[in-house]
Write a structure and sequence with these properties.
This protein has about 270 residues and is of the alpha/beta class. The protein is built from six helices and twelve strands. About 30% of the residues lie in helices and about 15% in strands. A four-stranded parallel beta sheet has the order 3-2-1-7, covered by helices on one side. Belongs to the FMO family.
């Protein structure tokens, strides 16, 4: 069969690779982070930018103007939806507990209502974590596109300090202002409220300071390197080895190249 996979996050990447390995006639991956430069010679998938529309005859038209004939299947690997209604009072969260965003246009305010209604965002939350209307509730793990377990650890450490009384949260008004200020920085709408990506380093640095912890620079460098390998060497990126050099104290990554006997080596901060 000919399959179009929308999305190249962890699920989209793994599913599209499995389809290619399993003998699909054609696997097309449509992704927002489209890069036409495919490094891995084993990768037989066809990479495309985002889909613009589906034509009446079933053909798929992409944002760069290219098209493909009607595929047999289109798989949506575009993320998850959040639901907390079964264990948290709905009147403490949007869209029911709506507070008019300061300095925000009507379009963004409407987007906030819609995204919290359909489950693509949980709001209002302070620093991606504490429910502003009731800060005794905290949502560990809302952010995505980040190092999840380190994120959980940092969030949990901060929660423990707050609940123990050793650290105080700001007044509700200040937490709302921080939340609205963050919303105003979103370029792709409220559906990306919990996406960290390039914001991960700043977020982790802030959480580390709030939780009396330190995150080394090498952690961020290795994360970015692993993300590069996952996209550029999708068939063997998991074979990469990261070791700390006993002499220099620096972290070093080694991975075998598919088209040569040599290793690709990268050194990170110590």
């Amino acid at each position: 069969q000919r399959v179009v996979v929308i999305g190249r996050g962890p699920s989209g990447q793994d599913i599209s690779l499995e389809l290619a390995r399993s003998g699909a006639v054609e696997v097309v991956v449509a992704t927002l982070d489209y890069d036409p430069n495919t490094i891995d010679p084993q990768d037989q998938r066809i990479l495309k930018p985002a889909i613009d529309h589906i034509a009446e005859d079933g053909s798929v038209v992409f944002t760069d103007g290219s098209t493909i004939a009607s595929p047999d299947e289109i798989m949506h690997c575009t993320g998850y939806v959040y639901t907390v209604k079964d264990f948290f009072p709905s009147d403490l969260l949007y869209p029911k507990a709506f507070v008019q965003p300061n300095g925000m246009n009507d379009e963004t305010a409407a987007d906030l209502v819609q995204c919290t209604k359909n489950g693509t965002a949980v709001a209002p939350v302070y620093k991606q974590l504490f429910a502003i209307e009731d800060a005794t509730a905290a949502f560990v793990g809302l952010p995505f596109s980040n190092l999840p377990f380190l994120c959980f650890q940092l969030q949990a450490r901060w929660i423990a300090r707050v609940f123990a009384g050793s650290v105080l949260l700001p007044p509700k008004e200040d937490m709302y202002e921080d939340f609205f200020a963050y919303l105003r920085t979103l370029k792709d709408g409220v559906r990306k409220l919990h996406q960290l990506g390039a914001r991960q380093k700043d977020y982790f640095t802030e959480l580390a300071a709030l939780s009396d912890f330190q995150v080394g620079e090498e952690i961020h460098e290795i994360y970015e390197d692993a993300r590069f390998l996952r996209q550029s060497f999708p068939f063997n990126y998991r074979t990469a080895e990261y070791q700390q050099d006993e002499t220099t104290g620096k972290w070093v990554r080694r991975i075998k190249s598919n088209d040569s006997p040599s290793e690709l080596v990268e050194e990170f901060s110590g």
